[in-house]
Design brief:
Layout lengths: L1 E3 L6 E7 L2 E6 L4 E4 L5 H11 L6 H9 L3 E7 L2 E11 L2 E9 L8 H15 L4 E7 L3 H9 L3 E11 L8 E10 L1
Parallel strand pairs: 7-8
Antiparallel strand pairs: 1-2, 2-3, 4-5, 5-6, 6-7, 8-10, 9-10
The chain binds coenzyme A (COA).
Length: about 180
């Protein structure tokens, strides 16, 4: 039997003999608290993913004030991260991001679920977030995790094309925990 593991794949191919092949889905991604030392890798993904990325100072502030900051790691490489603020009874998903080459493999959902579970444990009863109105993948993820649209914030974001004369609306979403 041999095990073949492709880089960035979410499965292992187990070949027992020429007749018997099994594809085993494994939880290849591990989640842990973000550390200052992770910021170089986090910022590389952030700059790839967003037209208006967070700066290092923003991430450092989030760590300093002890927001819930998680990274997703695969084969000792950071492949995603998420940041959530927690106040009395409420939490706010501030950032959720997965390496662009690894989208749609369940990593975003894993991070989101972990943050929501941690918030629940800390007695938050409602989760909020804002998302670009054009961000269909993220909106689909949030809807499928029980978030409802609760408002529209007009011109909330800089335009994705960085045209200073344009802004993009944010969809505000919320769910009970
Ligand atoms: C939004 C984001 C975090 C989702 O992470 P992901 O790991 O790719 O998502 P998952 O694999 O966990 O997918 C969960 C759901 O999201 C939706 N989704 C993910 N990728 C999608 C795509 N390319 N098109 C449409 N829907 C998509 C689907 O509903 C999916 O559920 P399904 O697998 O049952 O189809 C990721 O696309 C990302 O990092 N985007 C850039 C940063 C960003 O926009 N963050 C959100 C800020 S509010």
């Amino acid at each position: 039997m041999f095990i073949c593991s492709a880089p960035f794949a979410t499965w292992n191919l187990l070949v027992f003999n020429t007749d018997m092949v099994a594809i085993i889905k494994r939880p290849a991604v591990a989640l842990r608290a973000m550390q200052k030392e992770d910021l170089l890798a986090v910022l590389a993904i952030e700059r790839d993913a967003y037209s208006a990325p967070w700066t290092e100072a923003i991430f450092r502030d989030c760590l300093r004030v002890r927001y819930l900051c998680m990274v997703a790691e695969r084969d000792a490489k950071i492949v995603g991260y998420a940041v959530m603020s927690l106040a009395v009874g409420e939490c706010h998903v501030l950032n959720l991001c997965v390496h662009p080459q690894l989208h749609h493999r369940g990593i975003g959902r894993l991070l989101l679920r972990r943050l929501l579970a941690l918030a629940r444990r800390r007695n938050a009863d409602t989760a909020f977030l804002e998302v670009r109105a054009s961000n269909r993948a993220a909106i689909a993820l949030y809807r499928s995790e029980g978030f409802d649209e609760v408002g529209l914030r007009r011109g909330y974001y800089p335009a994705a094309n960085n045209d200073p004369t344009q802004r993009e609306d944010a969809v505000a979403m919320a769910r009970a925990l």
